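Box 3.1 A note on notation
Throughout this textbook, protein chains are presented in two layers. The first layer is the amino acid sequence; the second is a C-alpha cell string describing backbone geometry. Keep the layers aligned when reading.
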Amino acid sequence: MPKELSDLIFQNSLIPVIVQDVATRDVLMLAWQNQEAIDKTVETKEMWFWSRSRQQLWHKGETSGNRLLVCGVRVDCDRDTLLYLVKPTGPACHTGQGTCFGIKAFSLAILEQLIASRKQNPQSNSYTNLLLDDPKSILEKIIEEAGEVVQAVAKHEGTRQITWEVSDLLYHLLVLLGSEGIPLSAILAELAARHDEQKEQLS
C-alpha cells in the first residue's frame, strides 16, 4: 500500500473519489471506493470502485472496454477524499460522453490529440495534414508566425491581435511536436524541472 493511501478517513467503509484526466485535467467522474477497491486499483493500476446500488466491486471498463489507467493519486487535506489522475482508453461515462458531467473543456492536450489523430488518419482536406506532409513548411510557418507575434507587439496592435497571432504560433508549434513525435507532456516536464531547479537555487 502506498504511503499516501494510509490513514484514510472512511464514511461507512467508503471514501469518495474524483477521477481526473491527467492530460486535459477534465473531471471525468465521481465515485466511491472501499479498502478492497483501493487495493485492486493499486494492484492493477486501473480504476476499481464500489457500487453503492449493487453493493459490489466493479472494474471500470470491464464490460465496455473503456478503462481508466491510473497515473497518480492525491489525498485531500482532510484525508477523506481521493483524486485519481488517469489516462482514459475511451469515454468515461456510460452514456458515451467523455465525462459524466457532459462537459469537456478545450485544452492544448485536446489539440495535441487532434494533431496525432490527423497524423495517424490523414484527411485530404486537412491543413494539419498539409503541414505534416511537408516538415519544411512547418518550420517556415513557425518563423512566419513568430515574426507576426513580434510585429503585433512592437506595433501595439492590441491584445486581440496579439492573442490571434500567439494562437497561430502555438498551433504550429504543436504540429511541429507532433511531427517530431515529442509529447506536450515532455515540454511541461522540462519546464517543471527548470522551475524546481530555480526554486532550489533561490532557497
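The mean pLDDT is 91. The first strand starts at residue 15 and ends at 21.
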